[in-house]
Amino acid sequence: MKEKKEGILNCSGCSTYPCYRGEDCIRNHDFQDYYTLIDNEYNTTENRRILEVSSLIEAEHYMDYTRLEEIIDFAQRMGYQKIGIARLCRINQRSESPERYFRQ
Description:
This protein is mostly helical. The chain folds into two domains: 4-31, no CATH class; 45-103, no CATH class. The protein contains four helices and two strands, in the order ββαααα. The chain has helices spanning 32-42, 45-61, 67-78, 98-103; strands spanning 4-5, 8-9. A two-stranded antiparallel sheet has the order 1-2. The longest helix is centred in the middle third of the chain and has 17 residues, at 45-61.
């Protein structure tokens, strides 16, 4: 059964996810509270800036930048001095090495 805990909805027991298709929750959960929380989060100053900067980079460099170049441009435009990058072991050999790049 879905439980509402501190603003978090637990969907781990659901196997059909009708909400993903825009349908009502099969457990009759009212999502209105979550829509309000989500709207408030998207409208914070930093999150709005993240959306704007990432959209600009995509618009200006779609199919042009590598993923590493996108990350570098994003971090620079956001003014970040320190970032963390997660990588999957399976694609490790085929991907660029951000660590090697940033250590130069």
